[in-house]
């Protein structure tokens, strides 16, 4: 067992997968010699050669389109989009092509690709380096969507994604790359080396896609979160002293509805937290499911805490990004309703 | 035996990596003054060579030679030199400000100053640039106030973008500078659209699109060429080839095509390559292209051959992917030093005046910085209001955003 940051865990997942399976190839902007702007692919080219790990032209549509073609041949491409904000040029390839190839060819062709991308804010990245586009993918049938919240999950889930026979969107919260983050930007991030979830096996292991994890047991209220917001939610729970259960979804599509329903049925109250914009965000889906399945157990309206319905601002990002104070207010509101 | 051996994938690699000796022997540099200057209404097919050569005016001695020379007066050249020096001093101060935590991010122009500064001179009021992040020279050379630029970089209470945009992502309709996008290449095809609109309205303004060598790989670049050539849009399509796209050398985007300029040929667009470190050559070629556009002769594609001396951005470490001394080996020299030498040779400038000008310019930049900082920096002093997050999403604030603003306490 070694202590790893999320960056190292992601790298280790690709390393293990490339070592086990010659069909796994890794490419994207700056990922070859340099190892990616976040260094997630560092050393892979040196180890596996430049035809298995290489720099791609700055063409997201080209990256995803060629990955689809390689998958049709029989390879398992794991590609990087440099920031999630730059996947839009590839959106057609992802939604109309990758997501539907199995369905429209009746299984004649399949698309086992993984599209990795750093997501989310909290790094003064402004509008074009801070977006959380998960709802754009969960709306597309045929894709799978994963958002890990710690190194252990990131590695196990990425290995599952690479081994998955269908296209998987793998969203890496960049705010968590180096350590868990409690939402207080004036406090330094605790490194993963001091956290039990930084304990990551060096070799192969996998975590099933579609299974949520309960990060904190509680009986008064259920908080549903994923990615960075899991840590913000845990901080808010600690600060309010409310005995909340915190669910880390890990996989948004397919979704672990059972865990959600069990928890909300037990607690009767629910708060949903994500960084992305409120309107038509993934939180809306979660609230709809909770009211469909837990209506008679609810003691209060479900509350959402999200980013605002505006582009992500640069200078005011800490007023945009949901922090423990905003989440804490929502917890209290849900308790008092 | 099969007559074909097994396939293998070709992945382009730069000639050298960190630790190696820099080598630019593959960059073929013609003599200054040797490339002909065609008429602006030339048939594009007859000047295909210009997409493979490099138009140069200033020779090693500092003389201006050949058919592209002789277009600028001493006075114009002196102001050009000042613009480049100002941009360089501005970069130096802002880079330092970023290191001091006064802003989150900065991108400098070191070595590329001639491209945007000289190009601006070929435009008129009413023309529109669709720039990317390394063309602040367009603003500097148009006398846009440095304090405003710094206010934007510091995201302070006077920031024209109200803290909402990334640093260096300026905007000024007044100065012909379209708002910068963080998504590469998107603005290139928009430049073509602006130019088409000017033509639709029988107006006189022309547009200029800007893109880096790496970003020419984006689909938007190719869409731009399709629309520009189909409608003969009055647009100048600029490609700044500074050899690197973050860590990725230009060969990854260029692939097997001879040059970036050559991409225009298949579309019937006149395509020229120019020495991007030669202020006189950049101006001459820009003026040629602008005249074509103004005469309704359609688009021109220009590749500026230059070198990114500095890091890609303040988040980048170039020593991880290229030899440390590569920029010194760059065969086209330094744009500021070359123009300075030329002006001294012309008798219009001297080492003493240069040193004095350098000090004056740095002084003016520091004064501007003091003023900008008095309005705040990213982490201290006056800042844009949280209210500003919610403004300007739509012309009129819809009720759901108003509710969210109130919820945020504003
Ligand atoms: C659509 C998109 N993809 C990726 C990026 C990330 N990115 C920012 S700058 C850059 C390199 C651009 O290189 P080039 O076009 O050569 O311009 P230069 O920076 O060298 O001036 C990349 C990949 C982006 N901003 N937008």
TrEMBL record, chain A:
GO biological process, one term: branched-chain amino acid catabolic process
Pfam families reported for this sequence: Transket_pyr, Transketolase_C
Cofactors, names only: thiamine diphosphate
The name this protein goes by in its record: 3-methyl-2-oxobutanoate dehydrogenase (2-methylpropanoyl-transferring)
Example GO molecular function: branched-chain 2-oxo acid dehydrogenase activity
SMART domains: Transket_pyr
EC number: 1.2.4.4
Gene3D superfamilies according to UniProt: 3.40.50.920, 3.40.50.970
Lineage of the species this protein comes from: Bacteria, Pseudomonadati, Pseudomonadota, Alphaproteobacteria, Hyphomicrobiales
UniProt keyword terms in alphabetical order: Oxidoreductase
InterPro entries noted in UniProt: THDP-binding (IPR029061), Transketo_C/PFOR_II (IPR009014), Transketolase-like_Pyr-bd (IPR005475), Transketolase_C (IPR033248)
Gene: bkdA2
Start and end residues of each Transketolase-like pyrimidine-binding domain: 4-179
Keyword Secreted attributed: no
From TrEMBL, chain B:
Cofactor(s) needed: thiamine diphosphate
Domain of life: Bacteria
Root EC class: oxidoreductase
All copies of domain Dehydrogenase E1 component, residue ranges: 83-379
InterPro entries per the UniProt record, alphabetical: Alpha-ketoacid_DH_E1_comp, DH_E1, Oxoisoval_DH_suAlpha_N_dom, THDP-binding
Domain 2-oxoisovalerate dehydrogenase E1 alpha subunit N-terminal: 6-45
Gene Ontology terms for molecular function: branched-chain 2-oxo acid dehydrogenase activity
Region (Disordered), start-end ranges: 1-40
Catalytic activity line of the entry: N(6)-[(R)-lipoyl]-L-lysyl-[protein] + 3-methyl-2-oxobutanoate + H(+) = N(6)-[(R)-S(8)-2-methylpropanoyldihydrolipoyl]-L-lysyl-[protein] + CO2
GO BP of this protein: branched-chain amino acid catabolic process
Enzyme Commission designation: 1.2.4.4
Coiled coil location: none
Pfam families: E1_dh (PF00676), OxoDH_E1alpha_N (PF12573)
UniProt keyword terms in alphabetical order: Oxidoreductase, Thiamine pyrophosphate
SUPFAM superfamilies: Thiamin diphosphate-binding fold (THDP-binding)
Family: Belongs to the BCKDHA family.
Role summary: The branched-chain alpha-keto dehydrogenase complex catalyzes the overall conversion of alpha-keto acids to acyl-CoA and CO(2). It contains multiple copies of three enzymatic components: branched-chain alpha-keto acid decarboxylase (E1), lipoamide acyltransferase (E2) and lipoamide dehydrogenase (E3).
Name of this protein: 2-oxoisovalerate dehydrogenase subunit alpha
Species for this entry: Sinorhizobium fredii (strain USDA 257)
Source organism phylogeny: Bacteria, Pseudomonadati, Pseudomonadota, Alphaproteobacteria, Hyphomicrobiales
